[in-house]
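Consider one such protein record:
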Amino acid sequence: MKLKEKVAIISGGGTGIGAATAARFRKEGAEVVIMGRRREPLEAVAKATGSVFVVGDAGVTEDARSAVALAKERFGGVRSEEHTSELQSHSFISYAV
């Protein structure tokens, strides 16, 4: 339970590294909001991990604000951030607590 009392927003959370990160964070005790552009994979990951989700693009200000608003509404705010994306088939993650 390394992440107990943490709240994370994970972009790209419907597939790949983002989905795996959501699963790991939940396993470690964090509350998780996943975000992505396709509803179906987000629903599947949310159901499998106990996360909540927002359909949107993290690069669009209003969509990002929606994810933060959901985190505030459901969990009282954000206490960590996780960003995942792909650039020329290479994935990268930045993490801050």
Summary: The first strand starts at residue 7 and ends at 11. Confidence is low (pLDDT under 50) at residues 86-97. The longest helix spans residues 61-75. The CA atoms of residues 15 and 41 lie 7 Å apart.
